[in-house]
Fold this protein.
Amino acid sequence: MKDIKQYIKEMADSGIFEAIGDGVSIQDTNFKVLYQNKVHIDLVGGHIGEYCYEAYEKRSNVCKDCPVAKSFKDGKIHKAERTAPTDKGTLYVDITASSLKDSTGKIIAGIELARDITERKKTDEKINSLAKFPSENPNPILRINSQNEVIYMNESVKI
Protein backbone atom coordinates (compact mmCIF):
# COMPACT_ATOMS: atom_id res chain seq x y z
CA MET A 1 0.00 0.00 0.00
CA LYS A 2 1.29 3.44 -0.97
CA ASP A 3 1.52 6.14 1.63
CA ILE A 4 -0.19 9.53 1.26
CA LYS A 5 3.02 11.25 0.15
CA GLN A 6 3.38 8.80 -2.76
CA TYR A 7 -0.25 9.38 -3.82
CA ILE A 8 0.24 13.15 -3.65
CA LYS A 9 3.45 12.93 -5.67
CA GLU A 10 1.73 10.89 -8.38
CA MET A 11 -1.21 13.31 -8.55
CA ALA A 12 1.11 16.34 -8.58
CA ASP A 13 3.31 14.76 -11.28
CA SER A 14 0.22 14.19 -13.43
CA GLY A 15 -0.49 17.94 -13.43
CA ILE A 16 -4.02 17.60 -12.04
CA PHE A 17 -3.48 19.96 -9.10
CA GLU A 18 -1.90 22.63 -11.30
CA ALA A 19 -4.80 22.40 -13.76
CA ILE A 20 -7.26 23.39 -11.03
CA GLY A 21 -7.81 27.16 -11.07
CA ASP A 22 -8.07 27.34 -7.29
CA GLY A 23 -5.42 26.95 -4.63
CA VAL A 24 -4.94 23.34 -3.52
CA SER A 25 -3.45 22.39 -0.16
CA ILE A 26 -3.19 18.90 1.31
CA GLN A 27 -2.62 18.36 5.02
CA ASP A 28 -2.02 15.23 7.02
CA THR A 29 -4.29 14.37 9.94
CA ASN A 30 -2.04 16.41 12.24
CA PHE A 31 -2.65 19.48 10.02
CA LYS A 32 0.88 19.53 8.62
CA VAL A 33 0.95 20.86 5.04
CA LEU A 34 2.08 18.12 2.65
CA TYR A 35 1.39 19.83 -0.67
CA GLN A 36 0.46 23.19 -2.20
CA ASN A 37 -0.11 23.93 -5.87
CA LYS A 38 1.25 27.12 -7.42
CA VAL A 39 -2.04 28.99 -7.10
CA HIS A 40 -2.11 28.24 -3.37
CA ILE A 41 1.51 29.30 -2.93
CA ASP A 42 0.79 32.53 -4.81
CA LEU A 43 -2.17 33.20 -2.46
CA VAL A 44 -0.57 32.51 0.91
CA GLY A 45 3.08 31.66 0.37
CA GLY A 46 4.89 28.34 0.54
CA HIS A 47 4.29 26.44 3.78
CA ILE A 48 5.01 22.77 3.08
CA GLY A 49 6.08 21.02 6.30
CA GLU A 50 4.40 23.62 8.54
CA TYR A 51 1.18 23.30 10.49
CA CYS A 52 -1.58 24.98 8.51
CA TYR A 53 -2.99 26.88 11.50
CA GLU A 54 0.43 28.39 12.22
CA ALA A 55 1.22 29.11 8.59
CA TYR A 56 -2.09 30.55 7.42
CA GLU A 57 -3.60 32.10 10.53
CA LYS A 58 -0.65 32.53 12.92
CA ARG A 59 -2.34 30.39 15.57
CA SER A 60 -0.90 27.89 18.03
CA ASN A 61 -3.72 25.38 17.55
CA VAL A 62 -6.38 24.34 15.04
CA CYS A 63 -8.57 27.23 13.89
CA LYS A 64 -12.08 27.63 15.21
CA ASP A 65 -14.59 26.09 12.79
CA CYS A 66 -11.77 24.71 10.62
CA PRO A 67 -13.36 23.02 7.59
CA VAL A 68 -10.54 20.46 7.37
CA ALA A 69 -10.96 19.51 11.05
CA LYS A 70 -14.71 19.13 10.52
CA SER A 71 -14.04 16.90 7.53
CA PHE A 72 -11.65 14.77 9.59
CA LYS A 73 -14.44 14.25 12.14
CA ASP A 74 -17.31 13.31 9.83
CA GLY A 75 -15.76 12.61 6.40
CA LYS A 76 -18.03 15.19 4.74
CA ILE A 77 -17.31 18.29 2.69
CA HIS A 78 -17.19 21.54 4.66
CA LYS A 79 -16.94 25.15 3.54
CA ALA A 80 -15.78 28.37 5.16
CA GLU A 81 -14.87 31.91 4.28
CA ARG A 82 -11.67 33.36 5.68
CA THR A 83 -9.85 36.67 5.61
CA ALA A 84 -6.15 37.25 6.02
CA PRO A 85 -3.96 40.35 6.00
CA THR A 86 -1.35 40.37 3.23
CA ASP A 87 1.19 42.82 1.84
CA LYS A 88 -1.39 43.70 -0.83
CA GLY A 89 -4.27 44.26 1.63
CA THR A 90 -6.93 41.93 2.96
CA LEU A 91 -7.27 38.59 1.19
CA TYR A 92 -10.74 37.00 1.16
CA VAL A 93 -10.82 33.25 0.49
CA ASP A 94 -13.66 30.78 0.07
CA ILE A 95 -12.50 27.36 1.32
CA THR A 96 -13.90 23.93 0.49
CA ALA A 97 -12.38 21.04 2.42
CA SER A 98 -12.82 17.29 2.27
CA SER A 99 -11.04 14.28 3.67
CA LEU A 100 -8.90 11.90 1.65
CA LYS A 101 -9.34 8.23 2.50
CA ASP A 102 -7.28 5.14 1.86
CA SER A 103 -8.67 1.99 0.24
CA THR A 104 -10.12 0.86 3.60
CA GLY A 105 -12.00 4.13 4.10
CA LYS A 106 -9.66 5.46 6.79
CA ILE A 107 -9.13 9.22 6.65
CA ILE A 108 -5.45 9.83 5.92
CA ALA A 109 -5.36 13.50 4.88
CA GLY A 110 -7.42 16.52 4.07
CA ILE A 111 -7.60 18.47 0.84
CA GLU A 112 -8.49 22.12 0.83
CA LEU A 113 -9.48 24.20 -2.18
CA ALA A 114 -9.02 27.94 -1.69
CA ARG A 115 -10.72 30.35 -4.08
CA ASP A 116 -9.68 34.00 -4.00
CA ILE A 117 -12.90 36.04 -3.67
CA THR A 118 -11.19 39.33 -2.82
CA GLU A 119 -12.44 41.28 -5.83
CA ARG A 120 -16.02 40.08 -5.32
CA LYS A 121 -15.92 41.04 -1.63
CA LYS A 122 -14.50 44.49 -2.43
CA THR A 123 -17.26 45.03 -5.01
CA ASP A 124 -19.89 43.92 -2.46
CA GLU A 125 -18.46 46.39 0.07
CA LYS A 126 -18.68 49.23 -2.48
CA ILE A 127 -22.27 48.32 -3.36
CA ASN A 128 -23.25 48.15 0.32
CA SER A 129 -21.59 51.49 0.97
CA LEU A 130 -23.44 53.09 -1.95
CA ALA A 131 -26.70 51.50 -0.84
CA LYS A 132 -26.43 53.39 2.47
CA PHE A 133 -26.19 56.75 0.70
CA PRO A 134 -29.92 57.59 0.61
CA SER A 135 -30.52 56.79 4.28
CA GLU A 136 -27.38 58.65 5.42
CA ASN A 137 -27.91 61.70 3.22
CA PRO A 138 -28.93 64.80 5.22
CA ASN A 139 -31.04 66.02 2.30
CA PRO A 140 -34.56 64.75 1.65
CA ILE A 141 -34.64 61.85 -0.78
CA LEU A 142 -37.84 60.35 -2.16
CA ARG A 143 -38.44 57.49 -4.57
CA ILE A 144 -41.82 57.58 -6.26
CA ASN A 145 -43.28 54.88 -8.52
CA SER A 146 -45.26 55.41 -11.73
CA GLN A 147 -48.52 55.71 -9.72
CA ASN A 148 -47.01 58.62 -7.78
CA GLU A 149 -46.79 56.54 -4.61
CA VAL A 150 -43.85 57.07 -2.29
CA ILE A 151 -41.92 53.82 -2.11
CA TYR A 152 -38.93 55.19 -0.21
CA MET A 153 -38.12 58.25 1.83
CA ASN A 154 -35.14 58.89 4.03
CA GLU A 155 -35.24 60.31 7.54
CA SER A 156 -34.66 63.86 6.26
CA VAL A 157 -38.08 64.02 4.58
CA LYS A 158 -40.47 66.17 6.60
CA ILE A 159 -44.09 65.13 6.13
User: Anything to note?
Assistant: The two ends are 79 Å apart (CA to CA). Helices lie at 4-14, 16-19, 38-44, 52-57, 67-74, 118-131, 133-136. The first strand starts at residue 23 and ends at 28. The chain is about 35% helix and 30% strand.
